[in-house]
TrEMBL record:
<protein>
    <recommendedName>
        <fullName>JmjC domain-containing protein</fullName>
    </recommendedName>
</protein>
<keyword id="KW-0479">Metal-binding</keyword>
<keyword id="KW-0408">Iron</keyword>
<dbReference type="InterPro" id="IPR039994">
    <property type="entry name" value="NO66-like"/>
</dbReference>
<feature type="domain" description="JmjC">
    <location>
        <begin position="111"/>
        <end position="257"/>
    </location>
</feature>
<dbReference type="Pfam" id="PF08007">
    <property type="entry name" value="JmjC_2"/>
</dbReference>
<dbReference type="GO" id="GO:0046872">
    <property type="term" value="F:metal ion binding"/>
</dbReference>
<dbReference type="InterPro" id="IPR003347">
    <property type="entry name" value="JmjC_dom"/>
</dbReference>
């Protein structure tokens, strides 16, 4: 789906097509803005147009992705982290570079994420972050789907996005790389539809979106996708992790049960009497659950994966500073 709009009220234009029935749409959307819109009109976006300048400002670790990583690890991995001062050499060898949680180093970008979140009517507890991708010609990311909502702003160059709607797992709760198949994480396997075609075996339903400077692509969670840059490309992804109903219910019920001593016990085994006691505790918490309890949980950050990932990056950066 492609729409052409002007810069005027672009926030409202995006929200108008994406916010749907008190959630975000499950349909992707490609909107075309004037070529210089992002670099000239949005704070700090102009800093993501030069790799040397970005590497000078960014103080975190950089992920190297692609054939270069495969060759260096003798096929064991297709990506790994390097200090920012080593990243340029890998880019020149054809690797895509990923700069995660980049908003930590750019105040204007942080403000943009908050503003964007407001226009999308997202709860205050939603975790928003920015990822910058620098891709030389013919590089990109292999097939996968994400558990969060992506807004991709193409700043420089062109990039091909190959999309396919996910018939294997509706509304997945976790990221999954296709190269892992047939292995499936235990929870994902519980709702994976084994009678459906795999994405690479269903070429009739592929969707090709060609992004160029000024393009914004909305990518809902769970959509299969892979990318390939047709020339040197810079793009900025704003991602939002929204809590699922499961997250809200479990957190609210936990809060109801925590005050009870029995709920804080650490049993080594469970007999029938224990089971009855625990079941009664859960039932009491469920009966006490109010609408306000769930609404309150919308203001709490629930994404342990992204929060853990952010902590992991901070730890790597500390080591980088210590040993550089």
């Amino acid at each position: 789906m492609m729409r052409t709009v002007t810069i005027d009220k672009y926030f409202e234009k995006i929200a108008q097509h994406i916010v749907c029935n008190a959630t975000l749409s499950n349909q992707h959307l490609h909107i075309k803005f004037p070529k210089e819109t992002f670099a000239s009109e949005i704070a700090d976006f102009n800093l993501f147009t030069s790799l040397p300048e970005l590497l000078n400002l960014y103080k975190g670790v950089v992920m190297v992705v692609g054939k270069v990583a495969i060759d260096e690890t003798e096929g064991l991995r297709d990506r790994f982290f390097v200090p920012m001062y080593r990243a340029l050499a890998y880019y020149q060898q054809g690797a895509t570079l990923e700069f995660d949680f980049v908003e930590r180093f750019f105040n204007g970008l942080q403000k943009f994420i908050v503003k964007f979140q407001t226009f999308l009517q997202l709860p205050t507890g939603v975790l928003g972050k920015a990822i910058c991708y620098a891709s030389p010609n013919a590089s990109g990311f292999p097939l996968h789907f994400d558990a969060y909502y992506n807004f991709i702003f193409q700043i420089i160059g062109k990039k091909k996005w190959i999309l396919q709607y996910n018939t294997n797992a509706d509304l997945p709760l976790q990221h999954y790389d296709f190269h892992e198949y047939p292995y499936l994480p235990t929870e994902l396997e519980m709702y994976w539809k084994k009678d459906t075609k795999l994405p690479l075996g269903d070429t009739d339903n592929l969707i090709i979106e060609e992004l160029e400077a000024g393009s914004m692509l909305y990518l809902p969670r769970g959509l299969w996708h892979q990318t390939e840059a047709s020339d040197s490309s810079f793009s900025l992804n704003i991602t939002f992790s929204l809590p699922s109903v499961i997250d809200l219910l479990l957190a609210a019920l936990r809060k109801k049960m925590v005050p009870y001593t029995i709920a804080r016990n650490t049993p080594l085994k469970i007999n029938k009497e224990d089971y009855k006691c625990y079941a009664n505790l859960l039932e009491a918490a469920q009966n006490d659950l109010q609408l306000s309890d769930l609404i309150a949980q919308l203001g709490v950050k629930h994404d342990a994966y992204q929060q853990g990932n952010k902590t992991f990056h901070a730890m790597l950066e500390c080591l980088q500073t210590k040993f550089s």
